[in-house]
Amino acid sequence: GAGHIAEELTPLLKKLGFIITLIDERSERLQLPSFAVVDEKLDELPSDALKKIEFTSDLYIIVITHEHKHDEEIVKYCLDKPFKYLGLIGSKTKWEKFKSRYKSAGITDEKIARVKTPIGINIGSETPFEIAISIIAELIQLSQ
């Protein structure tokens, strides 16, 4: 699941030098050992926590939550903001549903196209660790 991917991904992001803010309203999740490297932990709903994030042109946003409604809200909130990368985990079907609702809300195709989904480079990954590696590979490729 998404949580397991985040657990694998977080230490790898830290090794690459990222400053990490982790948002999860489930406070017990924030205490997991793999999240010990996180620079800032926000124990609240993403819709509230996002208001505290400074959006800049060098911000990387990785959306890997436990609920589709959170994923959709996060992406929608971010579309009008500056960022370098906005990656969303999920299937093509999920993304098509999100896009349809975004378009109905008047969000332009240009803004929607800024979202990278499915997240990561297609390397045939299946396990949470392999998916984390594919995401890391995409971020390395993006920074070249």
Number of strand elements: 5
User: Order of strands in the sheet with the most strands?
Assistant: 3-4-5
Note the gap between the termini.
29 Å
- Number of discrete helical segments: 7
Mean residue pLDDT: 95
Strand content: 5-15%
Q: For the report, how would you describe the main beta sheet?
A: 3 strands, parallel
* Structural class by SSE content: mainly alpha
Radius of gyration: 14 Å
Low-pLDDT parts are: none
Helix content: 40-55%
Strand/helix succession: HEHEHEHEHHEH
**Gross geometry:** globular
Oligomer: single chain
Q: What report would you give on this structure?
A:
- α2 links the parallel β1 and β2.
- It is globular and about 40 Å long.
- The longest helix has 15 residues.
- It contains seven helices and five strands; from the N terminus they run αβαβαβαβααβα.
- It is mainly alpha-helical and 144 residues long.
- Helix content is 45%, strand content 11%.
- The chain starts with a helix and ends with a helix.
- The strands form two sheets. The chain has a three-stranded parallel sheet, covered by helices on one side. Strands 1-2 form a two-stranded parallel ribbon.
